[in-house]
Amino acid sequence: MKKKHSIGRFITLAVLCAIVLALTIFKFPLPAQWSDSDFYGFARAINLGIEYQGGTSYQYSVKSNSTKNFNLENGISSSMTRIKTLLENNLYTPNVYRNGDNVVVELLDEYSPVGITDIINADPYFAIKSEQSDTAEEKIKAEDVSTAYGTTSGSNIALIMTFTDAGKTKMADLTSSGSGTMYIYIGTTVLPLSYSEQISNGVLGATLGSGATLDQANYYASEIVCSKYDLSFEENGVTTFSKEDAKRNVIMAVCLTAGLFAICVAILCIVFKKLGLVGSLVMLMALLLQIILLQAVPIFVLTGPSLFASLLCMIIGAMSIYLMFNKMHSEYKMGKILYASVKFGYDKIWLSIFDMYLVLLFPSVITYFFGSYFVKQFAMALICGLSVWSFSTLLFTRSFSRWFTNISFKNKDYGFKREAHVDELK
């Protein structure tokens, strides 16, 4: 009875894996009552870097034209938000990140963009006036602002500004009447803001209108900060990845993944025979779960480093399975029967393997928060991959190998051998 149940479980898992594999690879239309779009497959839904999707990459050096001594780091961080919004307003799909002292702008699926440098070098503008007029006096300027950021306040979106000592004094003077309206000029946008008391604490909060988003508030904040630093961007280089280049890179990535998977499976099956097939099923399920997780994480982008990290997780997972099977083999060599070898072998090694995953996972989390763009993508791939492979190898290997002992009772199916003089323990 146990044998039939175990065979049924493996058949069910095999069918489930086949279905998920089809959902991962293939594209097909959805029923009209569900959606007007097609289902593209989990693998196709992963965010691709420019080398796998195609487009044009610009690299810019950053310079502050201000005569005052500002922290350029803050200016560069704010400028990336502003650049992204400016390009999106011009109907581009940009990816903006920092590479050392340079800012990199990637335009996906754009091969001959025009005027990109002019767009991102557009002069930022910020001022607070007491009248809504282009010629009215600027009561408060960007240099009077210490920090600016977007935030949520209940169901509303707000723009928060904190002022320098000089700006604090100017704001108190501007609102000395106790009530009225001020006008916040940000780029080409004018935000009227009513006040009912004097603002003397050096902090101004402006609630944006209905339909405003946090991204919009952060853009306004970046416009204010960039006005303060007066940054300019000088083009250092342009790299174009054609559709053919991107397609070739994708094919290479798929072949590399499939080839590495096949090598790991071959090693398990050669060493552990039919038990290696159980390990292969574990690997397949872990790989599918890894792909599903990566496409569900919006901040993950498949780049060269993140692909390497994902493949590294596969190797670590295969090594974990190999170590567990090898420990089971060691128990068999000591004279235990097959079921006991599988059970006690797993029980003696799983904690060491779990510790190994934790030792690798913690540095990955720390690296993500302190690394550059490509280091972050490498770390994110490691975090997702190690999480999936640790869960899969530890849980699935335990269950599947014990099911297998209900099906096969011959040590040669496990690749297990013991010396002739070792008696089997009863």
Give a structural overview.
53% of the residues lie in helices and 19% in strands. By secondary structure, the chain is of the alpha+beta class. The strands form four sheets. A four-stranded antiparallel beta sheet has the order 4-5-3-13. The protein has a four-stranded antiparallel beta sheet with strand order 7-6-10-11. The chain has a three-stranded antiparallel beta sheet with strand order 8-9-12. α8 (304-333) runs antiparallel to α9. The protein is elongated, with a radius of gyration of 30 Å. The model has no long low-confidence stretch (mean pLDDT 89).
Secondary-structure map with pairings?
Blueprint: H1 2-25, E1 28-29, E2 38-39, H2 50-53, E3 55-64, H3 72-89, E4 94-99, E5 102-108, H4 116-120, E6 126-129, E7 140-141, E8 145-153, E9 156-163, H5 165-174, E10 180-186, E11 189-195, E12 203-207, H6 214-229, E13 231-241, H7 243-296, H8 304-333, H9 338-370, H10 373-405
Antiparallel strand pairs: 1-2, 3-5, 3-13, 4-5, 6-7, 6-10, 8-9, 9-12, 10-11
Helix pairs in contact: 1-7, 3-6, 7-8, 7-10, 8-9, 8-10, 9-10
